[in-house]
User: Which sequence fits this backbone?
């Protein structure tokens, strides 16, 4: 402003001695030139000042009567008006041109910067590196501070300097819409919108409010950072799943080696015990009885090892359910056949409704559940007791229950909770580890069902297995 | 079946071979042992076998490969020995042509029963007797008539085909895949729910207690078995 005023005064002083030589029209030209120069070098507002000042100085120094604002001839008023208008328009146009040139230059610089950031981000190997690339640039270009907050991380309470609002951060992540907070300094929250989802927030704090061009630039910066963050995320996911797969392979190969190594000697034990009774000549009766007991114990051990390995497989997560639409009646039938020997003089009742829907489950595993429940029922109830298998269909579930008229579960076990290896009857003489029930629970849970321990009307034990109902596939009707 | 049936055992564990031999010799069988797949195939190539007892996990290869190779020249019965957790391998072996399986650990009683059933089996290609009886049911295949306690039982065409297929393989495991492909067609091999429904119908029409079947048995995770006399 001062420079602009000085320029006008200088022109007036230089031109004043030439007053007699030069025509007034040329004087006007000199002042217009000044306005042009001021507009080019100093911008719009100084140019306006120079326009007004030029007209005044022209009036005072060059229009008779000199050194007065008074005008001898009214025609000069038209001169002043035209001169002022010309000066203002020239000044405005020139200043606009200058601004546009400056803007274009800035845009080019930023585009170049974005390009550089993009190429650097493409090589970034960690989230810290992404921050290192983005932050100095914002500091340099906008003398602002910025911070990269990722959706998975805790939102820290402070941005260097001042606090930032975690609720803004949360909202931006949720909605994916940027937010400008104008309190104290300007804080801009930009969503890191990646193709899959919003990955976090880029927080930028500048002293001045950003204009449209700045906002567009920040948006571009945020999307570059977002893509880099997402790329890193998937790199991490891929690495993690590779490690998981290796661990998984190791675990299942150990399990299968273990199961083979345990099963082979057990098969031999059972087989040899059985084949002794084939010996010719026949063994004396007491020896036969001992051998039979030996075989029974080996079979029990095999059952136990089977359960242990099954539990290990379930816990290791290496069990892949073979889900098929199955008939509950069929699995009840095959389980009863498998554990048939366990029922001595027990009276067995099976009460299944005829219209049970098909359910989607792994038949081998559910058969395991039923076998365990039936064996428990046979073990923990009187030798001539009743065992009831019943089912009923509910809107979302089918409930299958196995109940007996033994002593039942203690009060503390009734309900849906349950730990591994909890036995209903402490250290009783009945063999068992409580493992069976734990396996049942793990299998039912894996099917999205529930296992509930209840009390039968007779006071005996009742275990209820709830399996979710689905939409069984249609059966094409048979052509009649 | 010859007077002394010849049985080949292919199993890498000597102790298991030993008791299988004891059990089968008690049934007056002549037992040949092989510890590897290659040796097993060489012995099988000598011919004249009435039964092969085959372990699926052999040191020099998969038992399934043995089944495939053996089936190239022989229709003789094959009994698989395998671990419980290996349902898929059992199914593959059965689909490849094995006839039955035993899950380790198994008792000698089961082994002898399965071996006898397989050796008694009607050779492939021989015709079924026209009238088959089991429990209280009489099936007259020549007249497509089914009687239960003397009363005619109405079966739909698919139910009848399923019944006939199971009757044609008494005591034998039929995999789900095989049943579905033969009765409904190759595009139905994954639609196991058809089997559940139709086997359920057969049980309801022909069994005393459908929840505790005595003839149409489920081999869980594998398929079905028709048991003529329990």
Assistant:
């Amino acid at each position: 402003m001062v420079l602009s005023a000085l320029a006008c005064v200088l022109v007036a002083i230089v031109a004043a001695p030439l007053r007699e030589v030069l025509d007034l029209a040329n004087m006007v030209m000199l002042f217009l030139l000044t306005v042009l120069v001021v507009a080019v070098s100093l911008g719009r507002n100084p140019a306006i000042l120079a326009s007004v000042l030029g007209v005044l100085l022209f009036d005072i120094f060059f229009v008779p009567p000199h050194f007065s604002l008074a005008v001898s001839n009214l025609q000069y008023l038209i001169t002043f008006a035209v001169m002022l208008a010309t000066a203002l328009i020239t000044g405005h146009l020139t200043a606009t041109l200058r601004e546009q040139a400056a803007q274009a230059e800035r845009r080019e610089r930023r585009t170049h910067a974005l390009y550089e950031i993009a190429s650097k981000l493409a090589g970034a190997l960690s989230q810290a590196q992404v921050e290192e690339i983005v932050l100095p640039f914002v500091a340099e270009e906008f003398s602002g501070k910025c911070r990269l907050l990722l959706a998975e991380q805790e939102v820290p309470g402070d941005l260097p300097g001042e606090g930032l609002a975690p609720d803004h951060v949360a909202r931006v992540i949720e909605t994916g819409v940027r937010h400008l907070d104008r309190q104290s300094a300007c804080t801009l929250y930009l969503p890191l919108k990646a193709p899959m989802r919003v990955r976090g927030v880029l927080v930028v704090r500048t002293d001045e409010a950003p204009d449209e061009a700045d906002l567009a630039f920040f948006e571009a910066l945020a999307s570059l950072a977002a893509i880099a963050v997402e790329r890193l995320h998937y790199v991490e996911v891929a690495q993690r799943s590779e490690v998981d797969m290796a661990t998984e392979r190791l675990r299942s190969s150990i399990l299968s080696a273990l199961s083979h190594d345990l099963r082979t000697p057990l098969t031999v034990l059972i087989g040899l015990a059985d084949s002794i009774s084939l010996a010719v000549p026949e063994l004396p009766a007491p020896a036969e009885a001992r051998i039979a007991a030996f075989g029974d114990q080996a079979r029990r051990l095999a059952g136990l090892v089977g359960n242990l390995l099954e539990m290990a497989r379930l816990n290791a997560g290496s069990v892949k359910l073979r889900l098929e639409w199955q008939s509950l009646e069929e699995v009840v039938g095959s389980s009863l056949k498998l554990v048939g020997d366990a029922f001595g003089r027990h009276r067995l009742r099976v009460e299944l409704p005829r219209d049970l829907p098909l359910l989607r489950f792994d038949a081998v595993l559910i058969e395991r559940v039923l076998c365990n429940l039936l064996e428990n029922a046979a073990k923990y109830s009187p030798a001539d007791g009743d065992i009831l298998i019943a089912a009923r269909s509910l809107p979302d579930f089918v409930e299958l229950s196995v109940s007996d008229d033994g002593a039942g579960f203690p009060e503390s076990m009734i309900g849906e909770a349950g730990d591994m290896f909890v036995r209903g009857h402490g250290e009783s003489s009945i063999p068992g580890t409580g493992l069976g029930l734990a396996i049942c629970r793990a299998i039912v849970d894996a099917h999205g069902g529930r296992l509930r321990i209840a009390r039968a009307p007779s006071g005996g034990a009742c275990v209820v297995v709830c399996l979710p109902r689905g939409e069984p596939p249609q059966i094409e009707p048979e052509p009649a | 079946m010859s007077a002394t049936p010849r049985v080949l055992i292919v199993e890498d564990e000597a102790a298991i071979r030993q008791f299988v031999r004891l059990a089968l010799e008690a049934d007056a069988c002549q037992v040949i042992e092989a510890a590897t797949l290659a040796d097993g195939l060489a012995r099988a190539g000598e011919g004249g076998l009435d039964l092969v007892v085959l372990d699926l996990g052999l040191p020099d290869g998969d038992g399934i490969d043995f089944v495939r190779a053996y089936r190239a020249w022989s229709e003789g019965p094959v009994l698989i020995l395998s671990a419980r957790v290996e349902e898929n391998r059992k199914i593959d072996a059965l689909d490849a042509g094995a006839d039955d399986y035993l899950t380790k650990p198994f008792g000698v009683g089961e082994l002898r029963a399965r071996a006898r059933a397989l050796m008694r089996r009607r050779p492939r290609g021989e015709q079924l007797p026209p009238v088959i009886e089991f429990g209280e049911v009489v099936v007259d295949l020549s007249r497509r008539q089914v009687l239960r306690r003397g009363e005619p039982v109405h079966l739909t065409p698919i139910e009848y085909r399923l019944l006939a297929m199971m009757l044609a393989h008494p005591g034998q495991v039929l995999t789900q895949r095989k049943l579905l492909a033969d009765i409904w067609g190759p595009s139905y091999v994954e639609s196991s729910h058809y089997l559940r429904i139709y086997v359920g119908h057969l049980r309801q029409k022909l069994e005393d207690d459908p929840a505790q079947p005595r003839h149409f048995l489920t081999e869980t995770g594998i398929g079905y078995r028709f048991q003529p006399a329990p």
